[in-house]
Amino acid sequence: MDCYTANWKPLGDSAFYRKYELYSMDWDLKEELRDCLVAAAPYGGPIALLRNPWRKEKAASLRPVLEIYSASGVPLASLLWKSGPVVSLGWSAEEELLCVQEDGAVLVYGLHGDFRRHFSMGNEVLQNRVLDARIFHTEFGSGVAILTGAHRFTLSANVGDLKLRRMSEVPGLQSAPSCWTTLCQDRVAHILLAVGPDLYLLDHATCSMVTPPGLAPGVSSFLQMAVSFTYRHLALFTDTGYIWMGTASLKEKLCEFNCNIRAPPKQMVWCTRPRSKEKAVVVAWERRLMVVGDAPESIQFVLDEDSYLVPELDGVRIFSRSTHEFLHEVPAASEEIFKIASMAPGALLLEAQKEYEKESQKADEYLREIQELGQLTQAVQQCIEAAGHEHRPDMQKSLLRAASFGKCFLDRFPPDSFVRMCQDLRVLNAVRDYHIGIPLTYSQYKQLTIQVLLDRLVLRRLYPLAIQICEYLRLPEVQGVSRILAHWACYKVQQKDVSDEDVARAINQKLGDTPGVSYSDIAARAYGCGRTELAIKLLEYEPRSGEQVPLLLKMKRSKLALNKAIESGDTDLVFTVLLHLKNELNRGDFFMTLRNQPMALSLYRQFCKHQELETLKDLYNQDDNHQELGSFHIRASYAAEERIEGRVAALQTAADAFYKAKNEFAAKATEDQMRLLRLQRRLEDELGGRFLDLSLHDTVTTLILGGHNKRAEQLARDFRIPDKRLWWLKLTALAELEDWEELEKFSKSKKSPIGYLPFVEICMKQHNKYEAKKYASRVGPEQKVKALLLVGDVAQAADVAIEHRNEAELSLVLSHCTGATDGATADKIQRARAQAQKK
């Protein structure tokens, strides 16, 4: 244990810091880091180097080279820079490389050097050029801040949703600030800059001078400033060698340290651990590294090579040409267990486990001591927590063995934390491997989450490892394996050296019917890569037509899209394709396409009936569908024409179409309607009133109601209305007029073809029993009983029914007998029934 703490350095009395090697870098750098533009992504991210960035002493003909490496120095990409001079490099939260050029253009590259997109920081930046730039991260995303040649600042807080903000101007600023940085306060990005002994805080509307509380006197300028990883703390390096540390709001001072070095540092970054009360800053010069905090002494390291600092959530990564190291505060659990002469429960449990392995009785002594103090649960938890913060697998195993040993003596210790730590460490050790090169710490891993880690493995095209992790952690398929396989398929379609057939087959064999995988998304990526045929082959595996059709339309394979939509049976989908085809094809080709698809043609006709009547007529004409064409002209005659002449002309066109369709009945009916319209117009002119658009029956009824009986009879003869129908019409009309005298004359004009029961019914409907009785006597024998019952003559109805000896009529009369009034009649019917049964 003593040997293990040899690299621990105390900072004051309450904290230790240690620096250990992550990787031995095998990258073959031909130039020093100082001669390159350098950018390293947080959370164990990649490193980007832009070699020979337009140095004056270099030959003008030499183009810079942009190289991207993993954190372990494994090359990921290398490309010759062919664009303009670059001022700054930085990584976004999505691990995209942002290259800020002198003209204000920002070029975005992927992890493997693939160009993604570009955007401009505005015309003002283009005109005044870029002096300096910073890439920063906020809760909204990754931002870019620019200092122009006019000493003005422009920034965008989120490059994914670019909104440029021009910051306020510093009064009287004639030269570039000695140092500046971005701050995030109240969800708003600010610029903090130093001009001589003054500090200014800028936003888009105001410029205010700020003064750090408790700053040592005699400061004439600020040489460097650094914001913590969480943007909560700020450090300022002054020309007097003092380092001021406080809150980013500049309202509270944490501490101050005099390093006695007045030379400006190359870099200054914060080195803090989450939930730790200790705050420290790491300052780097050419060959010296200093860790300072709230302590009278500092920790110093000698740098053998030119190095670069990368601030992390819980420490600082330091890489040079030969090594990559991690400097951080020793976590509390590790300190408790490993510090010299520690009697912490975790330390005793670790010793007990080691003695147990040696088969020594001291194991029992240590264990008893912990149990007597009632600290065995705490000891197990300490060992589990410390294991998470260890980088070396042998130390992880040692601590986990101790925790497992201690658990055996606890009755109800929940195993979740132990199992989860074992899983997390196995994942972390896998991604820390040299060939993977993601040196995440346990704290970073928990902050990043497993989903983001999987995304980063996918970005590096490490699909097998990502799938193994998903299966090991038993993640749901949609969140894990399915998602990764979909990314793999999207990468597979970009391999243009493999035939479309082979790629489609390989993707289908690997994916099959995996839930959560959309073949349409993969096909869209293939189409985006210019592989249309491959996209079509992949869409054949897509079971959802709603996903197939939009992409086929986008690929201008409209006829294939129409076939797929029809196969799906989804009418909305078919309509979508039809409207697309209508806009894409000329009228003739569109109609020819529809002729080959009966279902589509039928649906389009339905659409045209409500939206485009003229197109519907063209469809019928093209198909020589005279029957539907006739029906169309009939509807059009009433819907579109108000003048009688136009309506008659449309009906004549309809009649001609029906004759061509050999539909004699429809043609004759149409001609009759034309005659009726002309007659109705004449009646309106001669008699007044409204006749147009009435039916033939309504026209006759209107004439009768108007007292024009002869005209009505003539109309009936002209249009061959049957006598029965005419009598019904006249009967109804006269009863409605209550012209009972005329009705009686009409009934006696000749024998009624409809009988006289309708007269009784109509009179009773008009509540005229007196008139109804007149006709009841004239009703035929078969309907006599019904007529008598209608007028309320139950006794006579009973006599007639008895006379007819009709059981149905007897039952009908009996049903109308009510109370004492009809009691005698009911008895008479019962006696008649009894006599009939005797016979």
TrEMBL record:
<dbReference type="GO" id="GO:0016197">
    <property type="term" value="P:endosomal transport"/>
</dbReference>
<dbReference type="GO" id="GO:0042144">
    <property type="term" value="P:vacuole fusion, non-autophagic"/>
</dbReference>
<dbReference type="InterPro" id="IPR006925">
    <property type="entry name" value="Vps16_C"/>
</dbReference>
<dbReference type="Pfam" id="PF04840">
    <property type="entry name" value="Vps16_C"/>
</dbReference>
<keyword id="KW-0472">Membrane</keyword>
<dbReference type="GO" id="GO:0055037">
    <property type="term" value="C:recycling endosome"/>
</dbReference>
<dbReference type="InterPro" id="IPR038132">
    <property type="entry name" value="Vps16_C_sf"/>
</dbReference>
<keyword id="KW-0967">Endosome</keyword>
<feature type="coiled-coil region">
    <location>
        <begin position="349"/>
        <end position="376"/>
    </location>
</feature>
<dbReference type="GO" id="GO:0003779">
    <property type="term" value="F:actin binding"/>
</dbReference>
<dbReference type="GO" id="GO:0008333">
    <property type="term" value="P:endosome to lysosome transport"/>
</dbReference>
<keyword id="KW-0653">Protein transport</keyword>
<dbReference type="InterPro" id="IPR006926">
    <property type="entry name" value="Vps16_N"/>
</dbReference>
<comment type="subunit">
    <text>Core component of at least two putative endosomal tethering complexes, the homotypic fusion and vacuole protein sorting (HOPS) complex and the class C core vacuole/endosome tethering (CORVET) complex. Their common core is composed of the class C Vps proteins VPS11, VPS16, VPS18 and VPS33A, which in HOPS further associates with VPS39 and VPS41 and in CORVET with VPS8 and TGFBRAP1. Interacts with RAB5C. Interacts with STX17, MON1B. Associates with adapter protein complex 3 (AP-3) and clathrin:AP-3 complexes.</text>
</comment>
<comment type="function">
    <text>Plays a role in vesicle-mediated protein trafficking to lysosomal compartments including the endocytic membrane transport and autophagic pathways. Believed to act as a core component of the putative HOPS and CORVET endosomal tethering complexes.</text>
</comment>
<keyword id="KW-0813">Transport</keyword>
<keyword id="KW-0175">Coiled coil</keyword>
<comment type="similarity">
    <text>Belongs to the VPS16 family.</text>
</comment>
<dbReference type="GO" id="GO:0033263">
    <property type="term" value="C:CORVET complex"/>
</dbReference>
<dbReference type="GO" id="GO:0097352">
    <property type="term" value="P:autophagosome maturation"/>
</dbReference>
<protein>
    <recommendedName>
        <fullName>Vacuolar protein sorting-associated protein 16 homolog</fullName>
    </recommendedName>
</protein>
<dbReference type="GO" id="GO:0005769">
    <property type="term" value="C:early endosome"/>
</dbReference>
<dbReference type="GO" id="GO:0030897">
    <property type="term" value="C:HOPS complex"/>
</dbReference>
<dbReference type="GO" id="GO:0005765">
    <property type="term" value="C:lysosomal membrane"/>
</dbReference>
<dbReference type="GO" id="GO:0031902">
    <property type="term" value="C:late endosome membrane"/>
</dbReference>
<feature type="domain" description="Vps16 C-terminal">
    <location>
        <begin position="517"/>
        <end position="835"/>
    </location>
</feature>
<dbReference type="InterPro" id="IPR016534">
    <property type="entry name" value="VPS16"/>
</dbReference>
<keyword id="KW-0458">Lysosome</keyword>
<dbReference type="Pfam" id="PF04841">
    <property type="entry name" value="Vps16_N"/>
</dbReference>
<dbReference type="GO" id="GO:0006886">
    <property type="term" value="P:intracellular protein transport"/>
</dbReference>
<feature type="domain" description="Vps16 N-terminal">
    <location>
        <begin position="4"/>
        <end position="420"/>
    </location>
</feature>
